[in-house]
Amino acid sequence: MAKVILKTITKFFGSNKVLDQLNLTVNDHEFLVLVGPSGCGKSTLLRIIAGLETSTRGTTVIGNRTVTELSPKDRDIAMVFQNYALYPHMNVYDNMAFGLKMRKVAKEEIDHRVREAANILEISNLLDRKPKQLSGGQRQRVALGRAIVRNAQVFLLDEPLSNLDAKLRVQMRAEIIKLHRKLRATMIYVTHDQIEAMTMGDRIVVMKDGKIQQIGTPEEIYNNPANMFVAGFVGVPPMNFLSWSPGVVLGIRPEYIALIEKRESTIDTEIRSEKGDYIIEGTVEVIEYTGAEKLIYLQTNFGQMVVKTDTSQPIKEEKRYNLLFGTTDIHFFNMESGLRMGQDRPEQLVGTAAVV
Amino acid sequence: MIQWKFVRNLLLVFFCSLYVFPIIWLVMISFKYEVDIFSIPPKWLFVPTLEHYQTVLADSHVGAFLTNSLFVALGTTMIVLLVSAPAAYGCARFQSKAAGRFIFGLFLLRMLPGVAVVVPIYLVASKLAMLNNYLTLILVHVCIVLPIAVLMLQNFILEIPKELEEAAMIDGCSRSAAFIRIILPLMTSGIVATSVFSFIISWNEFLFSMTLSGYSTQTLPVGVTSFMTDKTLDWGAIAAMGVIMIVPVGLFTFMVQKYLIKGLTMGAVKE
Hints:
The complex is a heterodimer of chains A (356) and B (271).
Chain A (H helix, E strand, L loop, with lengths): L3 E10 L2 E11 L4 E5 L6 H9 L6 E6 L2 E2 L10 E4 L11 H11 L4 H14 L15 H13 L5 E5 L7 H18 L2 E6 L2 H7 L2 E6 L2 E6 L1 H6 L4 H6 L6 E6 L2 E5 L5 E4 L6 H8 L2 E12 L3 E8 L2 E8 L9 E6 L4 E5 L5 E2 L5 H5 L5
Parallel strand pairs in A: 3-8, 3-9, 6-7, 7-8
Antiparallel strand pairs in A: 1-2, 1-4, 4-5, 9-10, 11-12, 12-18, 13-17, 14-15, 14-17, 15-16, 18-19
Helix pairs in contact in A: 2-3, 2-4
Chain B lengths: L1 H30 L2 H4 L13 H8 L1 H34 L3 H15 L2 H14 L6 H26 L2 H9 L4 H12 L1 H17 L2 H6 L7 H5 L10 H21 L1 H9 L6
Helix pairs in contact in B: 1-13, 3-13, 4-7, 4-10, 5-7, 7-10, 8-9, 10-13, 10-14
């Protein structure tokens, strides 16, 4: 297993810059997830690591070797493709054995490794079948198996679950995590699905327009997003953004807001001390029931907001509610740059909180 | 409903017979006596004879025509496949302006009517002392077939996901090894369709074979004309030759029709 180091990777397709001066270090044994909207360059980056694409500028290092100029076969990597890319004219066994045969591994060794991988993935009974005769989930396992048998230094996975149905996706997600724990391999995983990224990654790299927006553990990404893009991209439903004061945007996640029915008699300050530091007033427009929770869409003075509540709280449409949230849960962003204002956020902003 | 079905079938029979009629007519002539061939109105029922086949097969040249044709058509097919498969792969996978121009260039020869290039080609061949030479015939036939073969195979390769080669390249293949081990086996039906196609074109080609072949390299279509002399026009023998020409191609096509249909319809529907 090995480290992967990318130094100032830049990639142009024609005059179109898809990757811009990217620096990234993937640690040994790490499960790193590249996530971002389509067209952000995450797949291109993975393909550059694989050697299927050459970077216009920059260096790629795998282990102790600079591989920038090497062809894919000399990089000692294994890759799983979105459409599985199983060889249709070979059975499962030959599909898995192909890479070893090409590397002139001894027959007994090939047999041993293929059967071992098949055991791990529980596909031992499918070895004689052709890919056509397999279900989507089985094909995915074979594709993983083909990568495992190689004992490569780095595993690259390019949206491997996006062709599966929702239920199978969740199941395979857990299996890939288990597999990573078992193999202790360095894995780089590309996805556009932020839930996959959050659940699977040791660290997450959020990308947009060919640039890295933030690198961090799922907790860091979720709780301390570097900018408005990351804050809005991670989390379902996305963070609420309120234009709080000139040039400043306040962000608050839907699950950190409490709803209290507005009664004329209640004194706002009392609630405030009990529930939070901020109060906004809003009218419920739509209620979405998702089973485990409810999503409440409200119209407020700051625009539309969404609140996630548990199903036990009775909420009525078209009623007025107080939205309450605490200082520790909010983020301030610079409206122009989108960057989060960290420790140095202006004091007076906190002071404006009580404005309703 | 029933009426519509009837009309539909009638139309089908009509249009099919338009295509099949010349062949039926040809076969009938080949079995007719001289008198029946020219009888008006045409005779649909007649006493069959094998005399034309006997004449044709007794002619010592016909065997040579047949071997020449087979040799040229097989040679053409082989060279076409050897050249067009990698060319088509290149055009399909490295789509660029250059690839587009390459295909356009290939088609230039097809865009001109054959008679326009036959004289220059004859002169070149004659200067190179390559008249009456199998290689010349084969090369010219290759030029005729190649553009369409490249285009056909290119469509096949475009159907194959490029991730398959990429997977093979990561598995330890060079690009050419990936092409040979992964792509070629997957385009079998395309290769069969293309080879049938180039075999038939070469087998039937007349103009260039007529001009460039000599006494010992005449192919079947050219050989047929030897039954047309300034004194006689032996329709019976010509028809018999025609049938003999059709049979090998028919058999070949019949044998590979499974691949052919798959090959010609590939890409029409998404799997």
